[in-house]
Design goal:
Chain A is an alpha+beta fold. Chain A is built from 5 helices and 5 strands; from the N terminus they run E-E-H-E-E-E-H-H-H-H. Chain A has 2 domains: 4-79, Beta-grasp domain (Ubiquitin-like (UB roll)), CATH 3.10.20; 88-158, [2Fe-2S]-binding domain (DNA polymerase, domain 1, Orthogonal Bundle). A 5-stranded mixed β-sheet of chain A has the order 2-1-5-3-4, with helices on both faces. In chain A, helix 2 crosses helix 5. Classes of the chains: A alpha+beta (163), B alpha+beta (330).
Amino acid sequence: MTKQIIKMTVNGEVQEVIAEPRELLIYVLREKLGMTGPHVGCETSHCGACTVDIDGKSVKSCTMFAAQAQGAEITTIEGLGSPDALHVLQESFKEHHGLQCGYCTPGMITRAHRLLEENPDPTEEDVRIGMAGNICRCTGYQNIVKSILSAAAEMNASKEAAQ
Amino acid sequence: MHEFTLIRAETDEAAVSALTAHPDARLIAGGTNLVDLMKEGVETPTHLIDINGLGDLDRIEARADGSIMIGALSSNSSVAWNADIQSRFPMISDAILAGATTQLRNMATMGGNLLQKNRCFYYPDHNARCNKREPGSGCDAMDGVNRMCAVLGTSDQCIAAHPSDVCVALRALDAIVHVKGVEGHRAIEFADFHKLPGGTPHVEFDLAHNELITGIEVPGLPFAANSTYLKLRDRTSYAFALVSIAAALKLDGDTVDDVRLAVGSVGTVPWRSAGAEDAMRGAPATAATFSKAAEIFFEGAKPRAGNGFKIELAKRAIVRVMETLKEQAA
Ligand SMILES: Cc1cc2nc3c(=O)[nH]c(=O)nc-3n(C[C@H](O)[C@H](O)[C@H](O)COP(=O)(O)OP(=O)(O)OC[C@H]3O[C@@H](n4cnc5c(N)ncnc54)[C@H](O)[C@@H]3O)c2cc1C
Ligand code: SF4
Ligand code: FES
Ligand code: FES
């Protein structure tokens, strides 16, 4: 089937990839662009492991054809922090044991990042509702919620200090 | 996944003519239902017509007469968080936020929500008999796992419950579906849009293959400012409803002046009962009145082995919602 050139900005860099219309965004990100942070947990829009940020919104990249991301701005976990410069959320997940096997974590943190942009000072309930699209089979969620609330507090404190 | 050709429609007319040219094409909006069905091989379109570039179809227009026109491409999130929707028709916002999760609501559009496929366990399963997927093959839900299935509007061919949350609210509000086809514009009453299964469960909508939904109009209804949506499900987030209630109530002192009531996940289409609403209008706003209306609502319900519990659950939920709205109105 006719392949197309898809141009998108991924983690701030303009990328051009050649893909068939039937290729799902998650596989283009992982296999063609080497962004292996977003995972495939279910491939049926349920688990949220494939969550990425598209044009400022959290989206499940297993439910989207890459061709639909033509011209889009995409952020994956790779765009939030790196091993030697962790994002506040990554630090916080590490600190509060917000992960065990880690499979859900990139999706969790990418979603949490957008959640805190939408609502910088969430209550525990806001976090639980806002994170409902991300499933974790290990932690029981308690420490994930704790990690996000603690990161929010830290981000707010450093914002205040900067003012 | 099977191969297909992607067409990007730039205008409503182009979308309609691409559909006309390709009898096995599908439109793609948010893709949250279609893409999953394509992965499972239930939908195998030869062409996908991407309508996300259709300019004005994502507008939400609150009009002076109290009505709101919701563009078909408005995302479920943008409708749920719209201030006019929240003040005029809170039940719409409540219904959307009770469904799916943020990631899906961001992608899912209103037009796509109206056309979402049912969640009957057997529908996507190629090893099962399903008249909806394969007309004439039989119905494995009838004597199988039918806990989620409908008790109203069923036929001997299909008992699948309509799964949408927001459609229950739109049914209660007598919304109007606007569509465009080769012969121009057509407006369809919400009550007529979803079809009962009867002998043709695969025919689900009053919508031709080559018609595009352009918008959903919610007529003004001042007392709908006092409305709500209650969804009961197996877990408190992220599950389809066992039963759900969309209702609006207007009181005149202690008497019910006007009322709207639709129940979700109990019917093969979003369900309303004129008899139940008539029984409340002019009657005292008491639990006895609400419970009588609930009895009338479920007259003629036909449970199967696994889903009889829905009837009692829904009756109690109706009373609870009406009591809540009564408190809110006072
Ligand atoms: C995990 C999960 C949980 C969910 N939970 C809920 C829930 O709790 N409650 C609920 O109500 N829903 C729920 N949904 C369903 C979701 O709301 C629908 O999938 C969504 O609304 C469909 O919209 P879409 O734009 O993505 O449609 P698409 O998948 O793009 O399209 C669906 C169908 O509509 C057609 N179509 C789309 N737009 C138009 C148009 N303008 N004109 C004509 N035809 C059109 C397409 O051709 C296709 O056949 C859930 C979905 C998932 C995946
Ligand atoms: S209830 Fe309807 S959708 Fe379910 S198996 Fe029977 S025919 Fe198919
Ligand atoms: S892999 Fe996309 S939601 Fe599970
Ligand atoms: S840490 Fe294992 S799935 Fe979440």
